[in-house]
Specification:
- With about 180 residues, this protein is of the alpha+beta class.
- A four-stranded antiparallel beta sheet has the order 1-2-4-3, covered by helices on one side.
- A hairpin with a 2-residue loop joins strand 3 and strand 4.
- The mean pLDDT is about 85.
Length: about 180
């Protein structure tokens, strides 16, 4: 005896079964499949954003350090030496003063030539054309040293030029004299 007999399935039942399967497939294609793709894209975006956040967390201390350096206030009131006038006898020491300025740097002192037009006018100061040669970054140190001279009245002119493939900077300064 056969427990399972022949299965009779009516054609309309097969049609209903096909329509139901088609409905389930359509629901999957319209409702579930697009959401699966959206979830996959969201996961990729979350991974990308997580990497960006980790990078920013690593760079944030560097950013704060750079920000602190940028916003560091530069002193506006620099120490100014007590000014006094140089005597006529001490004018010969000006060249030695400029030579000692360059001894701390790689620059060279070339000359200090008084301006001849000052001799005719007694204004209480003497104009001198001072020339240095060397690297401009070293000349910055010389400029700062020159500003510390107590008898310096002003720096009237700064000229930079190249002479025989050598960089030179020429200052026209006023020295207070007695």
């Amino acid at each position: 005896m056969d427990i399972m007999g022949p299965i009779n399935v009516h054609r309309s039942n097969l049609l209903y079964l096909g329509v139901c399967m088609l409905g389930i497939f359509a629901f999957f294609m319209v409702g579930i499949y697009p959401n699966l793709n959206a979830l996959k894209e969201m996961d990729e975006e979350i991974t990308s954003l997580s990497q960006k956040v980790e990078t920013q967390e690593l760079l944030y201390p560097v950013y704060l350090k750079l920000l602190a350096e940028i916003t560091h206030r530069i002193p506006t009131k620099l120490p100014i030496p007590n000014s006094h006038k140089i005597s006529h006898n001490d004018l010969s020491l000006v060249n030695e003063t400029f030579l000692t300025m360059t001894s701390e740097t790689k620059a060279r002192f070339i000359s200090a030539i008084p301006d001849a037009s000052n001799y005719l006018e007694d204004m209480g100061f003497l104009s001198i054309n001072v020339t240095f040669a060397g690297d401009f970054f070293e000349l910055r140190k010389i400029l700062l040293s020159m500003c510390r001279l107590p008898y310096l009245e002003s720096i009237d002119e700064v000229r930079m030029e190249t002479f025989n493939k050598e960089k030179r900077i020429i200052f026209k300064i006023k020295v207070a004299q007695q």
